[in-house]
Structure formats: structure tokens, C-alpha cells
Specification:
Blueprint lengths: L2 H20 L5 E13 L2 E8 L5 E6 L4 E6 L2 E2 L5 H4 E2 L3 E10 L2 E8 L3 E9 L4 E9 L2 H7 L30 E6 L9 E2 L2 E2 H18 L3 E4 L9 H10 L4 E6 L11 E6 L6 H16 L10 H32 L3 E9 L11 E5 L6 H8 L1 H30 L1
Parallel strand pairs: 1-5, 1-6, 11-14, 11-15, 15-18, 16-17
Antiparallel strand pairs: 1-2, 2-10, 3-4, 4-8, 7-8, 9-10, 12-13, 16-18
Length: 403
């Protein structure tokens, strides 16, 4: 069962050693004209042209069927996923930065196809050739999974830290900003606007305003990289977050929506649109090769519920303050500015957290606002004022609870 994983793991490590020995560690550029995935017999064949050889690994994941390729590292500029995918057996292709120094390509497969061969052909330029063969769903499941026994392309472990005492006005408040999406998950795209890029721009601008107001500020990502949802929570905890703000600007394929919306966590969505947004945000992890399949055991679930009993009202007050602050500074709020949804990124039980949809990129007015530095400055001011009000009230409550 683990034989195929071991083969590709060892192949990747051996090739990485050869590349390191030759000193070939720089960024490789993709050759779009020499790259494609096509049908081959009953299976498929992937060819990726590169300017030079780089360490790589290949593996498959189930539910849904996916082929994952990791590289150190590839510049994907010029490679169009739709033009690259010429196979009826591949439903979609995503690519981008996975973490600093690593790149990832993910193919969503229409049927269970296993890796029959994977070879990096070298000699000046390089060409990765991966051959896929049809297998049964049971055989696919048995072979699926990231290679074991290697840290290749895996996120660095986040060290465990002691819980930070609740802020009581006696120190700066640590705000962790979470720019949504990134890397191979660009988020919504409309008329040249990309959600991941716009949210990173806004997060950086908001950080500057919050720092001037006396807050401490950290970002879950400060580059165009992919950060799994659960890792965003772990990073916030490791950074000592007092509050967590996830920043988004989605698009709706059906219906009309505009204006900013503030979400808090609920297992049941406030409306159908909220449920659809939560599914879309969470699905990015699946398509990127991150399976959110853990389930809390009974003891952990009880402890988390106890933590949420204190955190949830604080998150609600934060959301109310943000509605007021944004309403005063930008005035452009959704007709229902306070909603609830089961966003995975909000499920940390010990940190007050909200998700801010700054607008909908499917709305021409909202998209223009998101691209406007003046509008973003007003939105950042509204969030800053809301955090100042919330932090003062939250500190006052903490002092009362300690007495």
C-alpha cells in the first residue's frame, strides 16, 4: 500500500540531492509552449517544460481525485491553465506559490488515475513527464497520500506556545490580519481584479494604520503564497493574537449583492449566499491538496465549546463595532451587514474572530471601491476605529472578570 508513496518520495529526494550537488537551486521558469496535459490511451500524460531542473515530488489525493506536484521552485508566469489542460480526464488545473521557496500544481481528475511513471529529463532545459494510468477507486485510495518520511514542501511546524492572557488594557492589543486566498488559490477574479492581491494590498495598508494607533499587527501571509485554512488559525495563535480578522472580497455567480458584510462563526449559515461562500472558501483547501478530515474527539469538543462560550460574545461585539465603524467611514454596507456562516478560518475557539467581506467583486461599484486607494483608506479607518472601541470595552470587561 505504501510502496508507491515510498518510490516517489525516494525519487524526489534523490533528484533533490543531484540538483543540490550541481548548485541548481534558482527559480525555474515554465515553458508554456512546451507544457501540456493530454489524454494518453485510457490514462493521461503531463509534460512540463522548465528552464532548468528543480527538486520535485508527485503524489495523489482522494476525495476529490487530485494529482499534486510540488517544486522548489517554479515561476508560473505565462502558463494558462485552460490552454495547458488538453485532457478530457482532467477537470481543472491550479498553480501558484505554496509557501516561501515552494510552488505547487494541482490537477483535479475526472476519474481515479494513478502515477505510473514520473521523470525529470535534464540537459540544459528540463522536462517533467508524468504518466497516469486508470485504476479502481479502491486502488487509488490505497495509493493516495503525501509521501511519508520527508519534510519536502511541508509547512514548518508551528511551535506550541502558552495561552496568552486576555488583554486588559495593560499592553498593546495584537491584531492578526488574514488576507484571504493566495498562491495557487487566487480567490475571486473580475475585470483584472484578483481577490488575493487586493486583500493583501488592503491588509498591508490596514496594518500601517493600526500600528500608528498603537496596536501590534501581524499578517498570516505577506506574500502571494498559499496558506491552508487551519494553519492560519495556528499562526494566529502562535503570534499571540488577541483578535483575528480574515479579509475577503468574494463574487456571486447568481443574484446581486454589494457592500461590506461582517461574519461571525455559526454552524448554520444565515442565508443561502453565506453557505455558498463558506463552501467556496473551504473548498480551496481541498483543491490545493489539504484535506480537512480531522474530527474533534469528545473531550476536545467539550473544551472547545467551553472556550467558545467566552469567545463568541466577544466576537459578536467585535462584529457590531465593525459594522458601526465601517458604516460611519464608508457607508456602503450590505443590506444585512451582520451574518453568520461556518467558515473554517473562524473556528479557533480561543481567539475572537470575524471574517470581513469588504465587498463583492461581482458588483461593479464594489470592485471600483476595492481598487481605489481613497476608499480603502476610509475602510481601514473604519476598522481601526472599531478595533479601538472594541479593545477598550473588552479590556474593561476583562478587569471586571478578574475582580
Amino acid at each position: 500500500m505504501g510502496r508507491f508513496r515510498l518510490i516517489w518520495s525516494l525519487a524526489a529526494l534523490m533528484f533533490a540531492g543531484q540538483v543540490a550537488a550541481q548548485g541548481l537551486t534558482a527559480l525555474a521558469r515554465v515553458d508554456a509552449g512546451g507544457s501540456q496535459v493530454v489524454d494518453a490511451g485510457r490514462g493521461a500524460r503531463l509534460e512540463l517544460g522548465l528552464s532548468q531542473p528543480v527538486p520535485f515530488r508527485v503524489f495523489t489525493l482522494a476525495e476529490p481525485y487530485r494529482l499534486v506536484l510540488d517544486f522548489s521552485e517554479v515561476d508560473w508566469t505565462g502558463l494558462d491553465g485552460a490552454a495547458f489542460d488538453r485532457s478530457d480526464r482532467v477537470a481543472g488545473v491550479a498553480m501558484g506559490g505554496y509557501r516561501p521557496g515552494w510552488s505547487r500544481m494541482v490537477l483535479q481528475l475526472e476519474a481515479p488515475l494513478a502515477v505510473a511513471a514520473a521523470e525529470m529529463r535534464t540537459g540544459g532545459a528540463a522536462r517533467l513527464v508524468v504518466t497516469l494510468e486508470p485504476v479502481s477507486p479502491e486502488d487509488f485510495a490505497a495509493r493516495a497520500g503525501a509521501p511519508e518520511g520527508t519534510a519536502f514542501a511541508l509547512p514548518e511546524p508551528v511551535p506550541l506556545v502558552a495561552p496568552r492572557p486576555r488583554q486588559a488594557g495593560d499592553r498593546p492589543v495584537m491584531v492578526v490580519l488574514d488576507p484571504g486566498h493566495g498562491g495557487l488559490d487566487p480567490g475571486a477574479e473580475r475585470e483584472g481584479g484578483v481577490e488575493a492581491e487586493l486583500m493583501l494590498i488592503f491588509a498591508r495598508e490596514l496594518r500601517e494604520g493600526l500600528l500608528r494607533a498603537g496596536f501590534e499587527v501581524m499578517l498570516t501571509r505577506d506574500d502571494d503564497i498559499f496558506v491552508p485554512l487551519e494553519m492560519r488559525q495556528s499562526l494566529a495563535r502562535a503570534m499571540g493574537a488577541d483578535v483575528f480578522l480574515s479579509l475577503h472580497a468574494d463574487a456571486l455567480a447568481q443574484g446581486r449583492a454589494s457592500g461590506a458584510t461582517i461574519y461571525t462563526l455559526s454552524e448554520e449559515a444565515s442565508d443561502i449566499a453565506s453557505e455558498m461562500l463558506a463552501e467556496r472558501h473551504d473548498r480551496a483547501d481541498l483543491l490545493a491538496g489539504v484535506d480537512l478530515t480531522h474530527h474533534d474527539d469528545e473531550v476536545a469538543a467539550v473544551l472547545m465549546q467551553l472556550a467558545r462560550a467566552e469567545t463568541a460574545p466577544r466576537s459578536d461585539r467585535l462584529a457590531d463595532a465593525l459594522v458601526a465603524g465601517l458604516g460611519e467611514h464608508i457607508g456602503n454596507l450590505h443590506k444585512r451587514p451582520r451574518l453568520e456562516a461556518s467558515f473554517s478560518v473562524l473556528k479557533a475557539a480561543d481567539i475572537p474572530a470575524v471574517l470581513i467581506e469588504l465587498g463583492f467583486m461581482s458588483s461593479a461599484r464594489d470592485l471600483a471601491n476595492l481598487k481605489s486607494p481613497e476608499w480603502r483608506a476610509r475602510a481601514a479607518a473604519g476598522i481601526r476605529e472599531a478595533l479601538l472601541v472594541w479593545a477598550a470595552e473588552d479590556a474593561a470587561e476583562a478587569v471586571l472578570l478578574r475582580q
